[in-house]
# Entry
Amino acid sequence: MDIFIQQILNGLSIASVITLIAIGVTLIFGLTGIINFAHGEFLMIGGIVTWLAVSAGLGFPLAVVLAILAVGLMGYILERGLFRFTLERPTNGFIVSLGLIVVLQHVVVLFWNPNQKSIPRPLTTVWEVGGVRIASVRVMVIAITIAVVALSFRMITASRYGRALRASVEDRDTAALMGIPVRRYITGVFVLGSALAGLGGALLIALFPITPFTGGTMVMKGFAVALIGGLGNIYGAVAAGLILGIVEGFSAGYGFSQWTDAYSFALMILVLIVRPHGLFGGTSGPRMAS
Amino acid sequence: MKTVLKMGASAALCLGVLAHPAFAEDNIVKIGVVAAESGSFVSAGHTLPAGVGLAVKQINDAGGINVGGKNYKLEMVKRDDRTDIATAIAATQELVRDVKVQAIFGSETHDFTLAMAKITQPAKIIHFAGNSTLAKILTPDSVKPGGEDHYLFQSEPQEFQRSGSTARGVLTLLEPLLGYKPKKSVMIVGNDATGQFLSSYYFKALKAEGQDVPDIIFYPPDTTDFSPFLTRAKSLNPDIIHFWYNGDSTLTALPQALELGAAKSYFLFGVDPGIWKEKQLSADVPVAMSCVPVCWGESSNPKAKAYFDAYFAAGAPHGVTSSVSLLYHDYVHFLAEAWEKAGSFDPDKTVEALLTLHHQGVVSDDLTFNPTHQVTHATEVCAAAPGGAISCSMQQPPAEAPKS
# Structure
């Protein structure tokens, strides 16, 4: 039984960082239609910034803030400098994001070499309850994810900004006619999604070492979660993140462990066949008058 | 008109001098390197050009090589395969056909080497690959003159040798630290072609040493969260969890294993004690490590310190698998000696010389290739006690593969 409970906790922990990525992916796609495959590299940059800050002697909490700000700023620059020119042609945005993956990876390799980077665990306590081991650092990651998800819910559902955002997703042109500064909202969402990736990177390096190539695997899972939940659907991303985390935990623990990733992506394919807009319904990107 | 002619003649003369690269390059011998300097295998990959580059510099600083009474300098031409087999193939084609290298070193990945050999061997290019896995293609038939792989050399011991010496070393070093003879082992292995291949040998080697191995747990490459795999291993109550084979993945998994209390001791394949020290790793249980082939952070090999001092001074980063560079560095010197002995760059004469030479390298004072072009030498295994003290020893390989 203790092994079973341990696997559930493992699944929750896996779900946390992936959910943070998926929320960023799903928000950006929902409003802009951009499928940003470089989102994993945003996460990696967040981890690198955290590593640099901690290596420079700063505490982990301050390093997390720096990672969020740095990746948010990077998102702002890239949206204004690159992605805004692709909004009318999302395929171009997709291609740009593929190019960015290589560029960002190689910039990091150039300045900080390709080797693994890690930081000392910010929390080292491990609790043992009835044979189940609970690492405090994992609890911290899960708690931060829950807090961020709750804040995002609140922002999307209850704030004026969130209503305008949802209106922009529904119909960008009508929203603009109603006085919503859609372009600014697009930038804002891109920055928010990027900042979440920065946070995800900071949390990731608190758990595991990272390399300049860590982003690729993470973003694939982030997209799987976003697609299972329904692209553009933040609630769906959270629920799908949990499902995928539990599926991964249990498949590694009890199934053919080497197929762990395959189970996740098979689930994604199955969901897309049965429910093309995801389990909880999603968008096909922003609607615009032609 | 005369002026125009004079100007034309002068220009032609100048262009003629400039356009005669052979004049400048006559005494240069080009050596190609194809390795992963980016992508998931970068950790081992970047050690190839670093090791080859250091050897090239050492040879050139010592005056180059004398072949057939003429002095030559070596030049390394490296290409990043980005851990992508198609890129490795394209890079090899370019190095062979356009750059016209005399020899190629790489790749660190078995599958890539096989693909590269399809280009290097018909072109009669001497090809060194630091893979332990080439036994199936390096057969007496394939390496004979005119054979398919006559110019291909394996610069790492065969896998049954490496696995055998590693398993024996791990068990020998961990037993006194555990205070009892370990009996049950679980292997955690990256699920790619290399992992599957290598683990089959290591599994046999552990069994040959009397270990009960109830499970081999494969994880998808690029896994970062090992907790479900480790929890599964923990449920089997092992004396030792053997992390096999990717050093980067191993370093990611170990702290998680320690948090979960997954086993009574651990073995980290391909993690150097130097990294253990630099990262200030510690464990409340014994941890064994192995290097391919000699460790840089702590070593029982007397030549290791001087080599790694020079290696790192040349700018190579302290990596998990920096020692992999030795699977290439020594063989640049070996090849240079073979060219000098052959008195020619003729590939057939070079192969003959490579097969008869006994080379004094860093890894061993007596490096030789067997008739199927494979090298044999010891592997270094170290163990960190819970208090932090690290001890190392070179483990000789078994003479024969264990019977399955």
Notes: The longest strand of chain A covers residues 126-129. Residues 15-214 of chain A form one domain.
